Amino acid sequence: VENRDHALDVARHVRDAGARMLRGGAFKPRTSPYDFQGLGVRGLEYLAEAKRATGLPVVSEVMSPEQIEQAEPFVDVFQIGARNMFNYELLKEVGRTRRPVLLKRGFSATIQEFLSAAEYILLEGNLQVILCERGIRTFETHTRNTLDLSAVAALKALTPLPVIVDPSHGTGRAELIRPLSRAAIACGADGLLIEVHESPCEALSDGDQAITSAALREIVSDVHKIHLALGGPLSPALAQTGEPVSVS
Ligand code: PEP
Ligand code: MN
């Protein structure tokens, strides 16, 4: 979330492109302390306004118990980012809320450690956990991370929890988002988390991996075709985009 107009604008664009939820950062875990750190509570207010304007439920990251309290009135889903997947006190704290939690895989976490992190949330009585594969750190430097799609198939076999894929952080490269989105759905992902910006070069965060809403629309269309080809039921999101449903 960069400012009010940006939040409203991107929300309308992604809704029209077929997105079902709006994920925006207000508390930003940036690698460098000199980078844009997010707008904090003001960012959450803009997200809530974007939700009122579009009807999209809002997802936003929290990094501390205090931020959980601050965010609770504004967000529908708490995101726990990769850096905090091993923060067990934070996991317990979101586990005590009754909001769904989008839990991102730590970049050095094994599948078993990822599942154990989810278990911390579930054990507190919050059963609404969404797992997100967002790439792991390997020797490869061409991509920002190595998107581990085998983890998606493995997690689908190991747990009934929904599993989504973030090809934006998983690759760090806008041109790779479409093919990896297709692959993610084909191997069983229940959804995608994709970073969108209408002018990626000017983005305050992660511009290299942001795509425009026009590109998002194409991906949504691909995803529906793959989903249907694999025998999945028709999703209501398709109606919103006005895309043809035929896979032939
Ligand atoms: C994000 O989702 O914007 C983010 C910071 O991701 P991760 O925690 O996966 O690095
Ligand atoms: Mn990001």
Explain this structure to me?
- It contains ten helices and seven strands.
- The chain is globular.
- The protein has a seven-stranded parallel beta sheet.
- Mean pLDDT is 94; it is low at 244-248.
- The relative contact order is 0.12.
- It is α/β, with parallel strands linked by helices and 248 residues long.
- Helices cover 42% and strands 10% of the residues.
- Manganese (II) ion is lined by residues 195, 205-206.
Features:
binds phosphoenolpyruvate, binds manganese (II) ion, seven-stranded parallel sheet, 248 residues, globular, disordered C terminus, alpha/beta
Describe the secondary structure blueprint for this structure.
Elements: H1 4-17, E1 22-23, H2 41-54, E2 58-61, H3 65-71, E3 77-80, H4 88-95, E4 101-104, H5 111-123, E5 129-133, H6 149-158, E6 163-165, H7 167-171, H8 177-186, E7 191-192, H9 213-229, H10 237-241
Parallel strand pairs: 1-2, 2-3, 3-4, 4-5, 5-6, 6-7
Helix pairs in contact: 1-2, 1-9, 4-5, 8-9
The protein binds phosphoenolpyruvate and manganese (II) ion (MN).
Low-confidence stretches: 244-248
Largest sheet: 7 strands, parallel
What is the CA-atom radius of gyration, in angstroms? 17 Å
Classify the secondary structure makeup into a structural class: alpha/beta
Bound molecules: phosphoenolpyruvate, manganese (II) ion
Q: How are the strands ordered across the major sheet?
A: 1-2-3-4-5-6-7
Question: In percent terms, what proportion of residues is strand?
Answer: 5-15%
Helices and strands, in N-to-C order?
HEHEHEHEHEHEHHEHH
What integer is the average pLDDT? Answer: 94
Distance between the termini: 39 Å
By DSSP (H or I, 4+ residues per run), the number of helices equals 10
The shape, in one word, is: globular
Strands, count: 7
Helix content: 40-55%
